[in-house]
Amino acid sequence: MCVGLPARIVGIDEDGTALVDASGAKRRVSAALLEDLEPGDYVMVHAGAAIARITDEDSHETEQLMDQLMIEI
Amino acid sequence: MEKQTKSAREILQDYRGKKIRIMEVCGTHTHEIFRLGIRGLLSPDIQLISGPGCPVCVTPVDFIDEAVYLALEKGVTICTFGDLVRVPGTKMSLAGARARGAAVKVVYSPMDAVDYAAGHPDTQVCFLSVGFETTTPSSCLAVQKAKQEGLQNFTILTANKTMPSAYEAMKDAADFYLYPGHVHAITGTKDCLDMLDKGVSGVVAGFTGKEILTALAVGVAKAQKGEPFFVNCYPRVVTEKGSPAAQKLVAEMMEPCDARWRGIGVLKDSGVKLRPQWGDYDARVKFDIKGIESRENPACRCGDVLQGKCSPSDCRVFGKGCTPEHPVGACMVSGEGACSAFYLYGGII
Ligand code: SF4
Q1: Is position B185 within any domain?
Q2: Between 20 and 30 A from B90 (CA), which of A23, A69, A73, B254?
Q3: Nearest CA-CA partner of B181 in A51, A37, A12
């Protein structure tokens, strides 16, 4: 039940919900927990709500962390 | 200058030395680590412990008993995440109650339960609100929505928990935590830094294979230095502040309470429940649930498993009396549970 789904915002409605595309599946989720969402943003969806913005690719993120680690050790 | 290129995988494979124990707090990490075969890659001197971070696994038996009572004695329609349906209660699970005529619906989000209540105005509908900081805001949004729509037939039964008390309770079981990324997407990294101040180490990890391996490698490299550390290895989702809107919503609608963790016991202020002004939406208040006597199955060692004191295969009913088809304890039910993951992926530890 705790699994988060990455999704792209397709549209925002005035009632505080957003239509998202999660790997091709369209779902309506609450957008109330994040400010200033815009179509095209990537978010993490959990239990029917967008809980966080996704700001980068995992590859880039992990490369940076490893580079940092290599400098330190 | 030539760049050093030791990969995360090499760091984890090549490590030799004092045993490093890592507790993966989140059930999704447990599941992904098994699914991706990460345990098989690790040096024998690195031990992974599956911690208490699957909400289904830590939901106590009395919560299931309360839900069964609401369904069978009060005729309430229970809306729940699917994982909870087969968790054993003292006498029966919700699946057992359903076989006796109870209405139990599986929903994907608390909002779906509100929609169900709106479509069935003559039925009392209760959503089973389990989960950590990640899920609690959604339950609050659902209650808010029910109020906005003027629904009088929607309640939630809360067993929402907060992680910091669990971090505190388990801190001696491991050398560092693999913190649950999506809890900290909401709460930010403050709780992890508070733990660091107490000398407890950890890394926040994401959920792809690369992210899990990198976070483990960063932790193993840091642990060798012997100093307490904290690294956010999931910065693309987890920020320092988390989600202020979610934190504010929960603080406004809910208050801390003591909570029982299956197999671990009651941890002070480790849960949240609706504030009194939301009593109309609190199933315990509305239906006056009292006096249910609950008892966990004495054979089940979920509590020890969750605390890293034993491995699932040390439980004498593991794979015999207790299987995913016929779970004895909660850890065997959810795909995120340690016993279920051990069972499904062959018990390689
Ligand atoms: S194998 Fe079953 S009974 Fe044993 S600890 Fe795990 S869930 Fe409990």
Answers
A1: yes
A2: B254
A3: A51
Contact B182 A70 (CB under 8 A): no
Q: For residue B327, what are the domain limits?
A: 302-344
Question: Which of A4, A29, A56 is nearest residue B182 as measured by Cβ atoms?
Answer: A4
CA distance B339 to B335: 9
| Residue from the list A29, A46, A56 with its beta carbon closest to the beta carbon of B236 | A56
Same domain, B249 and B324: no
CA distance B233 to B218: 8
- In angstroms, the CA B295 to CA B293 distance is 7
A61 is in which domain, residue-wise? 5-72
Total tally of structural domains belonging to chain A:
1
Number of domains forming the structure of chain B = 2
Q: What is the pLDDT of residues B78-114, one digit of tens each?
A: 999 988 998 999 999 999 999 999 999 999 899 999 9
| B293 is a domain residue | no
DSSP bridge partners of B256: B272
Within 22-51 of A, beta carbons closer than 8 Å to B belong to 29-30, 32-35, 44, 46-49, 51
Helix (H) or strand (E) holding B230: strand B230-232
Q: How far apart, in whole angstroms, are the C-alpha atoms of residue A68 and residue B183?
A: 25
Give A17-29 pLDDT, tens digit per residue.
999 998 888 989 9
Query: B130 with B167, same domain?
Result: yes
Query: Model's pTM, two decimal places?
Result: 0.90
Pair (B22, B72) in one structural domain: yes
Distances (CA, A) of B338 to A9, B26, B31: 34, 10, 8
Residue B82 gets which letter from DSSP? G
Any domain includes B271:
yes
What whole-number distance in Å separates Cα of residue B317 and Cα of residue B297?
Answer: 11
User: In what helix (H) or strand (E) does residue A58 lie, and over which residues does it extend?
Assistant: helix A58-72
Q: What is the ipTM of this complex?
A: 0.85
Tokens, residue A9: 């915002």
A47–B109: do the CB atoms touch at under 8 Å? Answer: yes
Angle at B256 between CA B186 and CA B308, to 5 degrees: 70
Place of tokens 């925002």: A12
Which tokens belong to B243? Answer: 């989600």
Nearest to B189 by CA among B172, B177, B171, B207: B177
